Amino acid sequence: MNTLRTPLALALLAAFSLYNQLASAQDAPLRQIGTVIIEGSRPTSLPTQIPTTFEGISHADIERCINATDAEDALKYMPSLLVRKRYIGDYNHAVLSTRASGTGNSARSMVYSDGILLSNYLGNGATFAPRWGMVSPELIERVDVLYGPFSAAYGGNSVGAVVDYVTRMPTQLEVHAKLTATHQPFRMYHSDGAYQGKLGSITVGDRSGNWAWLVDYSHTDSDGQPLTFPNKAISSTAAAQGATVVTGAIPGYDRANKPWLLLGTATQYHTLQDQFKAKLAYDFSPTLRASYTFGLWHNDSKGRPDSYLRDSSGQPVYSGNVSIAGKAYSISNTDFNMSNESLQHIMHGLSLKSHGKGEFTWELAASLYDYDKDQLRAPTALAYPAALNGGAGRMVSQDGTGWNTLAAKGTWRAGHFHVVDFGYQREAYKLATIENATSDWINGAAGARNSAFAGKTETNSLYAQDSWKFATDWKTVLGLRYEHWNAHDGATSSASKTAYHAERSENYLSPKFALAYQATQDWVIKASLGRAVRMPTVSELYQGGVNASGQLINNDPALKAEKSYTGELTADRKLEDGWLRLTAFGERTRDSLYSQVNVLAGSTVSTIQNVDRIHTKGLELSYTQDNVWRQGLNLNGSVTWTDSRIVSNDKFPASVGKWQPRIPEWRATAVVSYDFTDKLSVSYAARYSGRQFSTLDNSDPNGYAYMGASKYFTTDLRARYRIDQRWSAAVGVDNLNNYQYWNFHPYPQRTFIAELRYDL
Hints:
Keywords: Cell outer membrane, Ion transport, Membrane, Receptor, Signal, TonB box, Transmembrane, Transmembrane beta strand, Transport. InterPro entries: Beta-barrel_TonB, Beta-barrel_TonB_sf, Plug_dom, Plug_dom_sf, TonB-dep_rcpt-like. The protein is mainly beta and 760 residues long. Residues 1-32 and 36-41 have low confidence and may be disordered.
């Protein structure tokens, strides 16, 4: 036992004295004995006193190294992070994945912009991505990431990571304008085309006396590559006489390696997005500021199909009974699906915050995110292209859905030895989804109800944590979070039946612990432990179905909360112009919330259920070094090894011992940039992810197929040239090696980017 206790004791040591040694440094962010010190006009909202893993990237590094067309691109090369961005302007599937959470678990991370919650906890999964569109890439001053649920200031959704986008606020007149053009040749199966994107933004801000303001407008016009592929299992039935003989079907294998035919493409989106952001701040004193943020995001998108099938006259075929190689296949009118979506979301944020290094600072903050208009329309009676002229269909509305937050926070600095953070938080979510039939899917009014889901959840929390420097080279953080969770007004409806759900109320305590030790001037040893309770979301509880008898058939309002126990052990070394970090991490989760196949009421259905236990362990190596070998040559990279397994699952025994979905064993990133002159910089980056699965029982070994999840290795290139003091230009290529990879949908292939920027 002693041989185990010695390294464990050393591992429970982490950082504090480096703070004083580096307090006068100007580069940001800086890690000091387990503490992150942020320089700049806008401090991060993250609790930088926690001695645990932080990563960050500045606006300058984003400009130098990343072809950023959306806000989530800033996270592209962060250790162990992945955003499942399918195309430029992806608004409903760009989910953040972290160390022990895959891209099917959007509710296991938190994304903020200046402390305003952007994460969408109305549900969990691909269609509940953070509201990235509320942040224009041009507004980003810095992005900070806290890994793990080690701060009592955040709820159980922080189990993966907490991301905060810090956006600029001017100190003098600023004008920024940017134009971007993209070009993606796409070749897959019988698809051979090119998809373009056009993006423009303008930002204006100023400061006069105690007032500061900024407005930002951006527009995106994007054509994404096809995302879905209508298909049919191989038929053994001979085609009937009179069936349309067609050619062009692509034989292949699905993700389970079963043979099928691919008939064409669908969900090729043309997206038009507009984002408007306004920020206003007033300084009552040098240490007290009031801020208001308004965001408006509008999205119109059209998804269209394309058939590979051709009849004897060479015309495309989209529906009907067909003969392929003499076998019978039936293509419904909705197999080649199409859709129109029109969304308008509004965001408000208001805060009153004291800042500085006084004995006591505080903040009051509130935010509102509203689905002002959110409608999807699709045909049901006619096939493409006839459906382009109208016809019967369905319309799904989420108008009035949204969430609001309220927070009161305080920090008390008790001399040089204690920093105490405490506060109250409230988060409330409302789901209002209704699907109606309509006589005209393009412009028709809502008709009879097909289904509806409604409900509310609310969490009220109290927290406190003490950052205590109890010796010269030692520091500890002890925290506790209390959460009262309530779910109410739940209703699940079919066309003729409605099931109402009883109110639920539960209470949880989540302790946090961290310890840091300054082993030498350059080495810091840190350890963190934390419990996180991730509450079920509204849609997980109430979005399902009702049979003719009024019984629920594929949802469970009695779902348990997901409880995770997470720890990490880190050795952090300061280099001459950089940092080297090695972190061992582990997580044990009970009652994980997953969609899985179950037998309920005698029927096999796919529904959200609790997975009894998932265990994850791993190692993460992160390296950053500026001026390597010569001035201006910068390197950074990371390697992550993860072993994440399902160890108990009574509802689906076949999944026991299998890999947690969408968690690869190996991940890696690398970025090298070089400033040839003070005007010209070039960067080259690479990303790797190993084999992964999408199903709980790992029954999908073929990742290189529609609905599969493949490994990948991609490289990116960017060159930026400053023409003069105000004008700059950049060109780049994402996926330079044109790797064809999948995460249910195909990712973009080689994409060319050109930018022109003006700064005043």
